[in-house]
Amino acid sequence: MAERRFQKRSVFLLAYLVFALLPIYWMVNMSFKTNEEILASFSLWPQHFTWANYRTIFTDASWYSGYVNSLVYVGINTVISLTVALPAAYAFSRYSFLGDKHVFFWLLTNRMTPPAVFLLPFFQLYTTVGLMDTHLAVALAHLVFNVPLAVWILEGFMSGIPREIDETAYIDGYSFPRFFLTIFLPLIKAGVGVAAFFCFMFSWVELLLARTLTSVNAKPIVATMTRTVSASGMDWATLAAAGTLTIVPGAIVIWFVRHYIAKGFAMGRV
Amino acid sequence: MKPVNQKAWWLVLPVFLCVAFSAVLPLMTVVNYSVQDIISPERRVFVGTEWFAQVMRDEELHAALLRQIGFSLAVLLVEIPLGIALALAMPATGWRSSAVLVVVALSLLIPWNVVGTIWQIFGRADIGLMGHALQQLGIDYSYTGDAHHAWLTVLLMDVWHWTPLVALLAYAGLRSIPDAYYQAARIDGASKLAVFRYIQLPKMRGVLMIAVLLRFMDSFMIYTEPFVLTGGGPGNATTFLSQYLTQKAVGQFDLGPAAAFSLIYFLIILLLCFILYNWMQRVGSADATEAGHG
Q1: Cross-strand bridge partners of residue A229
Q2: Which of A142, B45, B85, B177 could bond to B37 as cystine, CB 3.0-4.6 Å?
Q3: Does pLDDT of A91 surpass 90?
């Protein structure tokens, strides 16, 4: 009975993994073909295997600088998000204060603004403060949806740590910063890893804000890719190669945090 | 009970400032637009609630809103159970759990316009795997010609793209359950279903709440993926709210009405999230009291 149940689970899991990988396989498949081959006929694997599309990306500065720009603002964003979210999450998990529940929910409402019309005020705001076309502009704009999520996730992890640990440390004469950095932070390492992954992910894949706030110097890869659409038709092959490469940094990040996710978190408050 | 300490506000302040800078200022600007008729950058007239009244009467918007609610409901009904099932099926330890985690997370890491492009090709009958396979099975599949096919393709794309988010969160929730709970259940001779209903589900409540809220609000604002895949068509079968709003804001350059539309849109999401949030909390606390009695 247990055996059969186990098998049913495995079959389901395997079926899902195939479903998850097929569209990605199709993109990778296309990235090793020429445009002519992609459009000419249906084939399960490249008939005339070529590295040309990848070579284009790695040798053309306007292509590979897109990856660098994206990595820079995603990095800045992740660091700022975690730095401001950590103390706030601690406050929410340990104390009650005026308006705490409302602020906690309000944070999440900042993820709910439909982008289309908000792009223009963002453009005006960042032009006014002189940050247009800088990595910092995109990093700051992405805080709107990453900080709330980081606070929610970290608060969940922190609430799982008993308060006695804090109290003992204060009695032992630890100051708050010293306690936080040397005792508390190592305890919620897993939470920091998971929150960092989500911040990285949402900032990496966002297109509209990143495109609006940059033009040349900080142009992200997601915006660079849109130029494969031209009057002469789509450059599917290069787009597929560029798309395949966008998965790589995220896959590396998830590889580093996989143990933290596997350790589990339950979320205290919600 | 948590001690009351108003000084905790100092710890929240950086978050407050960061988010306020990038969220409250643009929001105020949109409020400002929504009550004015902007004829040119120098000439603008205060029109009060006129745009709001106009937007509320817009028949096309009602249609887009209904389509949107239908889509978001479908997304939740498919992705939440599927994500939970997937989390339950994922191996808990060993190299296989690492490998599965990475593969499952892959679709989340693809930029949204690329997701649309992948599916655009993937679904084409002449050169795409899915389109070709369906054609071979004798289904006259075309996401550009048939409204139902287009809608289902957008839904399938969203399920492919976002179920992993639910699965990762649910998986993390499951892994936090101490072994002692399962041992106690085994001693009681509890069935698999009972273990799920009375141990796993309550323990996942927190992460599922996040999953439901995130999936709801993100699917309600879905824009890039269907824009690339179907462009809202055929007809307007896959023109969801965001798409319609963008047509108004960019296409016709009606900044005032578009701003009013944005605010109403925002309030709808806020209201629905608030209802979901409170409902899930009530269900959760009812569960807790039940468990306390039992």
Answers
A1: A234
A2: B45
A3: yes
Residue B80: pLDDT above 60? yes
How high is the pLDDT of residue B215?
Answer: 93
Instruction: Determine the Cα–Cα distance for residues B196 and A263; give it in Å rounded to an integer.
Output: 19
Q: Does A109 touch chain B (CB under 8 A)?
A: yes
Question: HEC profile for B122-158?
Answer: HCCCCCCHHHHHHHHCCCCCCCCCCHHHHHHHHHHHH
pLDDT of residue B141: 83
What are the two backbone dihedrals, phi and then psi, of residue A166, each rounded to the nearest 5 degrees? -60, -50
Residue A2: what pLDDT? 52
In angstroms, what separates the C-alpha of A244 from chain B's closest C-alpha? Answer: 8
Contact check, Cβ <8 Å, A122/B26: yes
Q: Is the ipTM beyond the 0.85 threshold?
A: yes
> What is the C-alpha separation between B288 and B294, in angstroms, rounded?
10
Find out whether A134 and A127 touch, Cβ atoms under 8 Å: no
pLDDT at A268 over 70: no
- Is B114 in contact with B224 (CB distance < 8 Å)? no
Contact A222 B113 (CB under 8 A): yes
Q: Which residues contact B262 (CB under 8 A, 6 or more apart)?
A: A113, A114, A116, A117, A118, B30, B34, B245, B249
Place of tokens 């899902």: A16
